[in-house]
């Protein structure tokens, strides 16, 4: 089965902020719902089951801290990223003391917000399947074992990390910057052709029919639809 995109609930009574944040998060591949108040957020959480909540502190009914207390009573607890005013450091301290996972001060950089969302999700707070299947590709993430049509595929550590990242995001076009952030590190040279080299290695080792496709000018996508156009 294909791993679903993480679900994020954005809670803010400023419509301009919810529209901007939700648009950016959807562009980054997340499934997003929005709420304009605390009570609506609590109700929506029960239905939407978010993997993370981006939560404003100042809300018109329940404040963000009270919403957090109510969400924290659920099992498993939903990770929360608070949005706080930069001139209210006491709010940031209070939120972190309660156990919130992180905060971003308003006005904030969208790049920073996305980076902090990804950092929280990478901490392992979102349950992910031990075995991911895309077509006839099977990736056992616990044993780090890969099979294609029942045939074992031997990969190096970095090849496996890259393939697992693709399978966790199957069906979504992933750009070079996102790949370098998740599979390499901050020292990755952005003009290096290392990603292209590893993609070619994966294609060769996985064999036909192709699963990993190039979208020229955009990145790469892993899928099992043989009839879908590709720029390979």
Strand count: 11
CATH class annotation of the largest domain? Alpha Beta
Sheet with the most strands: spatial strand order: 2-1-3-4-5
Helix content: 25-40%
CATH third-level topology of the largest domain: Rossmann fold
Portion in strands: 15-25%
Major pleated sheet: 5 strands, parallel
Please identify, by name, the CATH architecture of the largest domain. Answer: 3-Layer(aba) Sandwich
> How many helical stretches?
8
Radius of gyration: 20 Å
Describe the protein in words.
This protein is of the alpha/beta class and 232 residues long. The protein has two domains: 7-125, 3-Layer(aba) Sandwich (Rossmann fold), CATH 3.40.50; 131-222, Winged helix-like DNA-binding domain superfamily/Winged helix DNA-binding domain (Arc Repressor Mutant, subunit A, Orthogonal Bundle). It has helices at residues 15-27, 38-48, 64-72, 89-98, 110-125, 157-168, 176-183, 194-206; strands spanning 7-11, 31-35, 52-56, 80-85, 102-106, 131-134, 137-140, 145-148, 151-153, 212-215, 219-222. The two termini are 25 Å apart. The mean pLDDT is 84.
């Amino acid at each position: 089965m294909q791993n679903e995109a993480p679900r994020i609930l954005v809670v803010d009574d400023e419509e301009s902020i919810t529209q901007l944040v939700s648009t950016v998060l959807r562009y980054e591949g997340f499934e997003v719902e929005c709420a304009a108040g605390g009570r609506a957020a609590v109700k929506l959480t029960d239905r939407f089951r978010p993997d993370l909540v981006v939560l404003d502190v100042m809300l018109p009914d329940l404040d963000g801290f009270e919403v957090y207390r109510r969400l924290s009573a659920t099992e498993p607890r939903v990770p929360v990223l608070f949005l706080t005013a930069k001139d209210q450091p006491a709010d940031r301290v209070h939120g972190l003391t309660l156990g919130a996972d992180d905060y971003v001060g308003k006005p904030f950089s969208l790049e920073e917000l996305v980076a902090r969302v990804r950092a929280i999700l990478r901490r392992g707070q979102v349950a992910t399947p031990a075995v991911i299947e895309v077509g006839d590709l099977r990736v056992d993430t616990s044993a780090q074992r890969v099979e294609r049509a029942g045939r074992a595929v031997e990969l190096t550590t970095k090849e496996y990390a890259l393939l697992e990242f693709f399978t966790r995001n199957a069906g979504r076009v992933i750009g070079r910057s996102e790949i370098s952030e998740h599979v390499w590190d901050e020292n990755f040279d952005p003009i290096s052709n290392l990603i292209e080299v590893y993609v070619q290695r994966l294609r060769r080792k996985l064999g036909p029919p192709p699963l990993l496709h190039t979208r020229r000018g955009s990145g790469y996508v892993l899928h099992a639809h043989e009839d879908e156009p590709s720029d390979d």
